[in-house]
Amino acid sequence: MPDRPVRVTARLDTPLSRWLWLVKWILVIPHYVVLFFLWIAFAVVSVIAFFAILFTERYPRALFDFNLGVLRWSWRVAYYSYGALATDRYPPFSLAEEPGYPARLDVAYPERLSRGLVLVKWWLLAIPHYIVVGFFVGGWHLGWWEGGLVAVLTVIAAVVLAFTEKYPRDLFDLIVGLNRWVLRVAAYAALMTDVYPPFRLDMGGTEADGLERSP
Description:
- This protein is mainly alpha-helical.
- It contains seven helices and four strands; from the N terminus they run E-H-H-H-E-H-H-E-E-H-H.
- About 50% of the residues lie in helices and about 5% in strands.
């Protein structure tokens, strides 16, 4: 199993519209509707995978690919909308890998998974990460609006973009790093890897080589 089974990459698109971000919440509504049902299916598939791993030590490949597709779709929508606002390219309605899209996610398929870890990693072992991720993606109450650190930083980047026509590069690197942390935890909690997510903020749009792609 590779040391870095989850790879999250992103490319900052330029130029970006100064004002499109104000209406992206409307534009992504169709995606939110589809993702609502996909995440229900994601939860069901994860339960099925739990029992499959418990009895066979394997995550059925078709189920793995489906859940990976849901994570990919969600990452592309987040990147386009208020998880980053770093592209104006409308995300495709697709579970497949989209090599041409500026936000990408891959998870190495594990040939074997621990029966013991599957009993505890998604709730007990992941608790420290859940606390951190909760701070990143939710839990802040500002009047009628609730959001996390990622949303706050993304809005700041959008305001800077509106007035300067530039997306701050350092802010982009930080936002991608926070999203990378969240996605690593999501893959671990969804039983897709036994490699414990690092407590490390790997900033920037690229990662060091090390993901072993499965055939």
